[in-house]
Amino acid sequence: MIKIKYNGFTLPEVLITLTVVGALAALVLPGLIKDLNNKANMALLQGTVANISDTVQQEILQKNAKNIWDTDVYNNPSRFLKNHFDYTRDNNVFKTLNEEGDYVDVEYSSIDGSVRGGSHPTGEIILKNGVYIGIRPDIDTVIIDLNGPEPPNIIGIDYFALEVVRSTNTSTGVRMGDVGAARYDNQTDSQLKSSCKSGDAKKCFALIERSGFDPNYLD
């Protein structure tokens, strides 16, 4: 009678293999998760900006506006946001509850850690997808926070700023109502990166816009 010999792995060999696989997964998975999160954030940011741009143009058409002052974009940002977006809350948006139950500013920091502070828009809403939008007419700024009080709360990572152009400039091709960061077109990538890392949210967005919403826009 012929005996068949079966070859297999011993228990120690299986355990060693599983240990090696686990160690490799521990090294690789965080990077993959971070990359996926960055791509998701950029897609969400791009979609939010497109939504804002479409809404501004809708406002201009509805008001038959000849300039941005004929609209509510900067004149009454709270009404503009509430009239055009599906939102869940329109007060204490860029704030969070502390342990005593009081609303306090969500604190944002720069990428290099040199800047820390809150955001104080005149009009503000939370979209149904959890994105925070605020408008500060005093500095021609639209603020976007992709995930509210949740971390990392870092300018250029989940907090961004852009502007709605007030008037048309035929020499540069910028039109009234354009949404983005056109005023920084004359700056180099290096200049924008330096300013972005030190906390200039508009220049972070300018760089993102220039990169085509590349998740690795700072590399």
- Written as H for each helix and E for each strand, in order along the chain, the element string is HHHEEEEEEEEEEHH
- Please outline the major beta sheet: 6 strands, antiparallel
The tally of structural domains comes to 1
Dominant shape: elongated
Query: Level of helix content?
Result: 25-40%
Estimate the mean pLDDT confidence: 89
Compute the number of strand runs: 10
The computed structural class is alpha+beta
Low-confidence stretches: none
Please report which band the strand proportion falls in: under 5%, 5-15%, 15-25%, 25-35%, 35-45% or over 45%: 15-25%
- Biggest sheet strand order reads 1-6-7-8-9-10
Structural commentary:
By secondary structure, this protein is α+β, with helices and mostly antiparallel strands. Helices cover 39% and strands 16% of the residues. Strands 1-6-7-8-9-10 form a 6-stranded antiparallel beta sheet. The protein has a two-stranded antiparallel sheet with strand order 2-3. The protein has a two-stranded antiparallel sheet with strand order 4-5. A hairpin with a 5-residue loop joins strand 2 and strand 3. Helix 4 crosses helix 5.
What's the arrangement of secondary structure elements?
Layout: H1 11-63, H2 72-75, H3 77-84, E1 87-89, E2 95-97, E3 103-105, E4 108-109, E5 116-117, E6 123-127, E7 132-136, E8 141-145, E9 159-164, E10 179-180, H4 189-197, H5 201-211
Antiparallel strand pairs: 1-6, 2-3, 4-5, 6-7, 7-8, 8-9, 9-10
Helix pairs in contact: 4-5
